[in-house]
């Protein structure tokens, strides 16, 4: 029997990757827009207390119910998105830039400085991440800025490693030698030739890291080392109300759900970007 | 007035040292001169030190010992801006055409890079790039293409266009035709021959194919295990090799 001609699987795969990319990008953009314009989207003042209506169950007026001070949970979750999402994006941007700069410098320069910096990064990589972040945040004291700093301190080595190995692989290519013969100086070669060629895998890693970092930041806040009450932040909101988990579960569920959904969206987006950037997945 | 050599190399030596291994001498005290307008071939088997030698001449690798004098100027220890200025007089065509262009840049960007670095404005660079492409037998719209979008032969033509962009006196071809098939090889050689005449270029032609050297070069050096074992006019070397290795090299081809 003859085999039925079919559409090439690579093409199908490519099309679905593209569709996924569009869907998840839209969702991520919506999430970011929501956090940008959070104060216009809240139905109630997220900091307004109404003790007569505390711990109210979800109703049409208060979809997620109210917390023990009678504050509207939906409004708090929406306002909390700004703290959670923006600090995560800031954190990822910072570690991407710092890691890339250090990695490219090490890969390009080599020698003793490279060895020293890479051993330092090995030291950071040897610690269990969150435990080390806890220690750093503990020493520096709580607060969102310190939490971001603590997480940045433990997360840059991954990026430095990638950037360094990528730089090393580009360093001896004929086109870099050609660029040097064309009279381009080191700075120009790094900025115009090396960076554009190594940035792909780095960006994919940082996309995949958004979800992880969001969880870790919320985790630190949950443990009281991140955002401080009354600032609305998902991790600290869960922590604030955890004593009431058995009696009024919706108060903890609302920020939990928000974390779950946004981490999921960013992770799926990261996965899709990775698939999209992978040339092996590309149809010819 | 006597005219000096465009390139003079004395005692050029490269020793690779690695931890735990005896030092390896890739190039062993070689010296040669290249007169203006001359085409000098260097042949030898893989690992004979040809590429290491040109890498030292172009200062992409530092020499362990020896001097490199380009157009009367010692460039052995030049760095940074001074070295960049030396590249105005010396350019190179690489073995692998596609890989010698940045995959993220268009061919036009690559060809114009040296022009921009040496102070030409954008519009002027675009105009010159179009002219250079034409001179090398490519349509002007190739400036907008990426290296993976053109064939190896076309890419090598673009690489030659890049090499002659700043009007160098010396062109170094490091196995420039080795990665191409025979018919394209012939075309690229014809192009080099034509450019050599038009621009009165001096050429250092590195190759492992003695037949090509015979067609193309005025003089040939035979490199074996880092040393020059024979030097002469290609036809004479082929007809009457004095060195055992040269004889074997010729026997293996002809």
Key terms:
heterodimer; A: 284 residues; mainly alpha; MetI-like fold; elongated; B: alpha/beta; Rossmann fold; 2 domains; 6-stranded mixed sheet; 4-stranded antiparallel sheet; 24% strand; globular
Descriptive overview:
The complex is a heterodimer of chains A (284) and B (254). Chain A has 284 residues and is an all-alpha fold. Chain A has helices spanning 9-36, 38-41, 73-109, 111-126, 129-140, 144-171, 174-181, 186-222, 234-240, 250-277. In chain A, α1 (9-36) packs across α3 (73-109). Chain A is elongated and about 75 Å long. Chain A starts with 8 loop residues before the first helix and ends in a 7-residue tail after the last helix. The model of chain A has no long low-confidence stretch (mean pLDDT 84). Chain B is 37% helix and 24% strand. Chain B has helices at 50-57, 80-86, 107-117, 122-135, 152-164, 182-199, 210-216, 234-239, 244-253, and strands at residues 7-16, 24-34, 39-43, 65-70, 73-74, 90-93, 170-174, 202-207, 219-224, 227-232. In chain B, the strands form two sheets. Chain B has a six-stranded mixed sheet, with helices on both faces. Chain B has a four-stranded antiparallel sheet with strand order 2-1-4-5, with helices on one face. Chain B is globular. The relative contact order of chain B is 0.17. The chains are: A mainly alpha (284), B alpha/beta (254). Chain A binds chain B through residues 173-175, 177-185, 188, 192-193, 196-197, and chain B through 58, 60, 80-81, 84-85, 87-88, 90-92, 94-96, 99-105, 110, 113-114, 117-118, 159, 162, 166.
